[in-house]
Amino acid sequence: MLFRLENLSHQYSDGTLALDNISLSFAKGERIALLGPNGSGKTTLLLHLNGILKPTSGKVYFEDKPLEYSPKALLELRRRVGFVFQDPNDQLFAPTVKQDVAFGPLNLGQPADQVKKAVDEALRLVGMSEYAEKPPHFLSFGQKKRVALAGVLAMQPEAIILDEPTSNLDPRGTSEILHLLLRLNKELGLTLILATHDVDMVPLFANKLYILNKGKLVSEGAPAELFSDAELIRSINLRSPRITHLFEVLKKEDNLPINPRLPLTISEARKEILRLLESGRREKKKRTTA
Amino acid sequence: MAILLDMRRGKEQKNKWHIYEEIGTEMSHFNLSAEIDRYAYTNALSKNSPVTKLLFALSLLLISVLSPSPVAPITVFLTSTSLILFCAKIPLRFYLRLLWYPTLIVALTCVIIALFFGYQEPLAEVNLLGLRWIIFRDGVATGFTTFFRVAGALSSQFFLVLTTPMTSILLVLRKARVPKIIVEMSLLIYRYIFVFIEVMETMRIAQELRLGYSGWLKKLRSLSMLIGNLFIRTLDQGERTFTAMSARGYDGNIRVLEDLPKPSNVALAGIIFFAVALAIIAYLTMDLRIV
Ligand SMILES: Nc1ncnc2c1ncn2[C@@H]1O[C@H](COP(=O)(O)OP(=O)(O)OP(=O)(O)O)[C@@H](O)[C@H]1O
Ligand SMILES: [Mg+2]
Known about the structure:
The complex is a heterodimer. Chain A is built from twelve helices and ten strands. Chain A has helices at 42-49, 71-80, 88-91, 97-107, 112-125, 141-153, 171-188, 202-205, 223-227, 230-235, 242-252, 266-289; strands at 3-11, 17-26, 31-35, 57-62, 65-66, 81-84, 159-163, 191-196, 208-213, 216-221. In chain A, helix 4 (97-107) packs across helix 5, helix 4 packs parallel to helix 6 and helix 5 (112-125) crosses helix 6 (141-153). By secondary structure, chain B is mainly α. The chains are: A alpha/beta, B mainly alpha. The complex binds adenosine-5'-triphosphate (ATP) and magnesium ion.
């Protein structure tokens, strides 16, 4: 197991109990989504994974060893586990894109020519090579998000934690980031752990889903399983993916013979529609021959 | 592609400022400095060695300010201006917009100097509302010289800020062993100034749209709230930036890639030669009478 949380609780200094007795584990190579409404504790949970926050009670295990908080151990952990923050303005501090992306690798003590290579490669991956010499305030929000991701990729981590990687992005930007992440997972075997409240994005991305609400772990499993429990989803102020909702209505209100495992994505919906049409046609044929 | 994007950005910016004009806030100095910053990165000389440009601008500044006659400052002004317009390819309109406000103030000051200073060799006598007023030759000469000194100094500094990205200036400072704390602070300040300008503009528009600036009492209240909020935001931002930096292995040292373009020896020699020649001109024209 890459990460394991054991009865983790976190209370902020003002008394807010942001995480309440959470136990879960993340395996290597998985694409994990944490889903929950605003203030449910997603960011707080993620910040425990690379040692920025310490649990008030409970334990964090990294590769089955309890997390150490010495500066040296933390540097090693942060080399292997990158973190992309929710707001790119928090992360981009350097005066140019290139300098910002170089910051992580330089902190790892790599020699300059190796750093330059890593920077170029990371910028190429996120499609921002043209902007290497620009200051961040020349970039659009979505471009800043990509640079923030490049800054983490340049450290060549084995896992990346992403806090709301697609919030505030336009549809095109969202799908580009999503495809980039899926490619990194597939080609380099990167483990991805991502927090979001974008339910439409979850089934496209995740193979494992955790639902948080008010600091508690409400449910975990494959996205398809969890989204078929419409009651649960609604009870915590989230909704099903739009496409799933449509099929739910078609099934309930219009009594169409839809599979109980509702489609979550466009491609699944397409299959389901084709299946419905096909069975309809067969029915008709049967009736005409009879 | 890059040009296209730049054009698109330019348009966005214009639209943004258009809103301010409509609302009637005074953000012009913000967008002026943002525009200077933009030219610093996009002008035709931006890729040249910052060491050369820094050396050039500083030596011309010194010569302009110290020169006793206007000949050297005028040469400085003409040289910097032609470099700005023809080598860096900064649009004339923009350069004039930058120049005209300070020039106006300096010109007024120099007229006052010319009229009220001096004590040798009366040049003219005017009758002003029944008052006899004497203008002296050395007063006029001082006013004249001061004007060109300032013009030369201004143009050499505009050359620096219009052609050299802040980033490279910071790298040069670092190389010149300016204390780390100063360089690192400037680096962060430079980056976050733009973030805060954006935050401030957003907050201000939000207040404006809720009529926070109708009437001076409300104006005062809105403004003080804005400043208070901004202060809290800066503290908050500091903490969040620190967290994000820690996540990438920050240990108290900001390391940067040093890949400045090398200064060319020809250019350095040229600058030194030019500066020495100007200094000699300044010396030789010390006693030049201009009026
Ligand atoms: N620094 C802090 N000090 C005190 N309370 C905090 C702090 N940060 C977060 N909280 C509180 O902890 C709870 C969980 O916050 P968290 O940021 O983890 O939520 P989130 O799921 O990431 O929300 P969002 O979707 O809005 O990003 C919230 O009630 C929040 O108000
Ligand atoms: Mg969050």
